[in-house]
Amino acid sequence: MKKTKDNYSINGRVWIEKDGDTYIGYGRVVLLERIKKYGSISMAARSMDMSYRRAWELVESMNRLSEKKLVETRTGGRSGGGAIITDEGERAIKLFWSLYDDLKIFLKEEDKKQLEIFS
Amino acid sequence: MKKTKDNYSINGRVWIEKDGDTYIGYGRVVLLERIKKYGSISMAARSMDMSYRRAWELVESMNRLSEKKLVETRTGGRSGGGAIITDEGERAIKLFWSLYDDLKIFLKEEDKKQLEIFS
Rounded to an integer, what is the distance from CA A32 to the centroid of its chain? Predict the structure, then answer.
């Protein structure tokens, strides 16, 4: 969010779609990173104040839309299963942050530009 | 929305905030343009399948957040009042579309860039 004249600011969002469905956006990438950190979908969800059901749905959606799974889950075991981020998942995380950084630059530039044009 | 590899596409949204509240976004600008076309908030709302209440709230929000009103309303009269877009409203419309056009260029460029990096 950048300041334009007075306290106006330009803000934006960016995401990746597949066939018109959201594939990767800000919330999904944060979820992937939390899964990577905790090795568990339920712990990742809890850390974000997200329901397990919602986190599971997002993971399912990403895995379904991707050519290769972004998250692999293991069921059972003493710890009640776990989850890891695949190489494809790592690529998706990188791609999104690259896009996100560029959006921030874009917003900053627009801020300067619109300020010049409209002030 | 632009095509990346396979049928992935990068999409985005951009809007102007004031003090953290949405001031001008896509829907609000379309509403302003319809008000300009029809000279009436209720007809503008109807043309967008939006409730009159919602349209009125959006107009109130924009007028409140702007230094000068974007929409001026006249009550009463045979036609039951009307609404016009002020010069400030025209500026807001122009500013938003300028921003929006730049976003489309940004998305197109990102599409090309991310394609190169990640394919």
Answer: 7
Rounded to two decimals, the ipTM of the complex is 0.85
Per-residue pLDDT tens over the stretch A48-58: 999 999 999 99
Residues of chain A contacting residue B91, judged by C-beta atoms under 8 Å apart: 118
d(CA A104, CA A111): 11
pLDDT digits (tens, 9 = 90+) for A63-103: 999 989 999 998 765 555 699 999 999 999 999 999 999 99
Distance between CA atoms of residues B21 and B111, nearest Å: 30
Task: Identify the band that residue B45 occupies on the pLDDT scale cut at 50, 70 and 90.
Answer: very high
- As a whole number of angstroms, the distance between CA B13 and CA B17 comes to 13
Tell me which CATH code domain A17-118 carries: 1.10.10.10
Q: Which residues of B touch A66 (CB under 8 A)?
A: none
Is the CB of residue A12 less than 8 Å away from at least one CB of chain B?
A: yes
Q: What residue segments make up the domains of chain B, in order of their start?
A: 16-100
CATH of domain B16-100: 1.10.10.10
Q: Which of A18, A99, A113 sits opposite B110 (nearest CB)?
A: A99
Global pTM?
A: 0.85
